[in-house]
Write a structure and sequence with these properties.
Blueprint lengths: L1 H9 L6 H15 L1 H6 L8 H10 L8 H9 L6 H23 L5 H14 L2 H5 L7 H14 L7 H15 L2 H24 L10 H22 L8 H11 L2 H13 L14 H6 L4 H4 L2 H19 L1 H16 L12 H11 L4 H6 L9 H28 L3 H24 L4 H8 L1 H10 L2 H4 L10
Length: about 475
Amino acid sequence: MAVPAVGQALCRPLATLGGEVGAIVLIVPLLLALALWNGFPFIFYDTGAYVLEGLGHVFLAERSPVYSLFLDYTDASTSLWFVVSIQSLIVAFTIVETLRAVAPGTSLAWAVGIGLALVSLTSLPWFVGEIEPDCFTGTTVLSLYLLVFRREAVAGWREDALLCGVVLSMAAHPSHLLLGLGLSVLTVGYWALRRLLHAKDWPRAAILRPLMGCTFSVLLVVAANYDLTGKIFISRSGPAFLFARLLQDGIVMRLLDDTCAEAHYRLCYYKDDLPRTADQWLWNTSSPFFAMNKFTGTSAESTRIIWDSIWRYPFMHVVAATNDTLRQFAMFRTGDQIEPQEWVLSPSLKRFLPSQMESYLTARQQRGEIDFRPINIVHVGVAWLSLAGLTEALVFMVRTRRRDIGAFLAFVLIALIGNAVVCGTLSNPHNRYQSRLIWLAPFALAALAGDRARFALRGVAESGS
């Protein structure tokens, strides 16, 4: 009797509370499977700085104070597994609520199948199991979509939970905040255009909750900065990252060549020693950036150089920003810098996580046992096929006037483009930036396939031959 009972349970639709809760409970461990296989949560080069800022309460301009304090509040000093478990719960909840709203006929079994596919075929579990805020890029997008276009489906406690989730997700990283703000602005524009044109057949859009989410996210960032510094501000690192990208694109050197004789930039003294890449400028200790006191010492001049170069070379800026956006959109290989890193991170981890050092050092990542080359043969191929499928499905939904589903696909595609714009132009292209979000493309297609009665590509009744 047990087997039929299990089969019956797996057939429950997510529209039922049992199916919804069951899906979340089953997807959470799936998302943690790779970290468990590794023997320790995945570590990135930035992890040490987040640990230092959050557990040591030392302000670092280049790291999100919200995510750093998130580590503190989730008791990372006792175990980093607490952190990734909560990350997994937030991501699983957002995935399931999206499936409930977009495809309510989806069964528990199909939802779990989607979870397995995401773990096997996409980068998602590598970010969920990592001590980095990158797993929250996708929850920013999906939560905003639900609050805008599917408010009726998530009304009540679910809506409140999604609002809390989007506030944390946006505030967890500056790029998430900019992406969320951009999507919210587009949403307001869509809402206004729909009212102006009296287009009642367009999907309805709610703007109050997303705007609340944006407002609370900004306030959370300000509060976190105030907690660490006693001062009110949003960011002190923006000019440095944009400057680094302009340096990599050759715009800074062009400005110095043309103006050093009369402009008297401090940087002119280091003109012959400037590195060629953004990462070398920001993170190589021999860089003039360190000699000029890093983020604090370079902020004013970086801002001045940015504006002066825009004024002098606007077309050069447009071309460089376009190229960087296109490069970023196509860069989504999994495993960017997931490698042995103890030579960088050991000081912070030994200080704040001493009881976890043995597990950290014996993990597969630290032993250099993870080879992403075969993984990326699958992940990159799935990503490109999914992007093609997403585009084709969006065109089909527009042609057949299935605007509610078209809005979902368009939101995902716009988010992927927006992420490339934000990260490619305001920082500089890295595989990690687009990889953390590319899983939304196959997820969107799998969501549509899960409710075949609603989204069959052929209508229920067709005329003609």
